[in-house]
Amino acid sequence: MESTRNKLIHLLEENKDTYISGQFLSDKLNISRSAIWKHMKELQKDGYEIEGIPKKGYRIVGFPDRLSENALQWGLKTDWLGKTIIHKEVVTSTQHIAHQIAQENTEHGTVIIADEQTNGKGRMNRHWYSSRDKGIWLSIILRPSILPYLAPQLTLLSACVLADVISQQSELIPKIKWPNDILVDGKKIAGILTEMQAEQDQIQYVVIGIGINVNHNHNDLPSDIQAKASSILMETNRNWDIKHFIQQILVTFEKEYNEYIEHGFTHVKKKWESYSFKIGEPIRISTLKSQWTAIFSGIAEDGALLVRNNDGTTEKLYSAEIDWFHEV
């Protein structure tokens, strides 16, 4: 259920070019004018600039430049994604919080966002460096009506969402490196971690973790990844509005997810392959038993990597080590 405060924010947004009387707001929200005044003071603490004039009412004249639940929901044009947003300044990991509250039956579409992670999680338990106020560190809780073996498709869908938003907002040309990295000019600027809790034939919940380097300078990145990582700022030479980027991600994610649930994976597969890094090119593959070179030909319905071997056969790969940058 939408909170009184969020309803107030939406009323202010809908009438941002005029004054709204305290009595009108009181009647609409079924609370006292004194309560309206207290809510306005709380919004001002969050960084909103609200002008109040006797006999005219209230209107908003400025927006917060820092993240908060209210700031993120202000102007967010989604139907279900992000209707509940939990914002924290510092966390160990948004994934950790997401799992905790998902087990408490929090609603589908809940989003957890942090300004900083002290122990951000990447794929295969790798550490994700999450500098304060420099990037986007968020997790989305989903309760999809799909079978557990299809959950990897949500990673591929999420990668398409990030590629879409980055290209639309910044005009960069992102590429997706299977299964979950977003590259620009061969350097990683974003990653995705998908985790789930499921029974044999039913998903209880899925947590999609998203990390994007947005306003990092070169020296903001740890020295051991400076040669292979980048940020949107470094690639465009300008700072970006993190709140706006998050809102665009949520809007695009909801649209793509709805399409996927209604029509299946075909659209996602086609889009993913259009963004794919090195599709149609030779790659070097290593497993515990052997090493070989094959042509990367696309992705399968279950998210596996498809390669075409020298003998013309097509093979599915789920967990091989891929050398994407070796000159074959």
From TrEMBL:
GO CC, one annotated term: cytoplasm
UniProt-listed Pfam families: BPL_C, BPL_LplA_LipB, HTH_11
EC identifiers of the protein: 6.3.4.15
Alphabetized InterPro entries for the sequence: aa-tRNA-synth_II/BPL/LPL, Bifunct_BirA, Biotin_CoA_COase_ligase, BPL_C, BPL_LPL_catalytic, HTH_11, Transcriptional_repressor_C, WH-like_DNA-bd_sf
One GO BP: protein lipoylation
Function: Acts both as a biotin--[acetyl-CoA-carboxylase] ligase and a repressor.
Protein name: Bifunctional ligase/repressor BirA
Family, as annotated: Belongs to the biotin--protein ligase family.
Keywords of this entry: ATP-binding, Biotin, DNA-binding, Ligase, Nucleotide-binding, Repressor, Transcription, Transcription regulation
Entries under CDD domains matching the protein: BPL (cd16442)
UniProt GO molecular function: ATP binding; biotin--[biotin carboxyl-carrier protein] ligase activity; DNA binding; transferase activity
Positions contributing to biotin binding: 117, 188
Major enzyme class: ligase
DNA-binding region: 22-41
Keyword Lipid metabolism: no
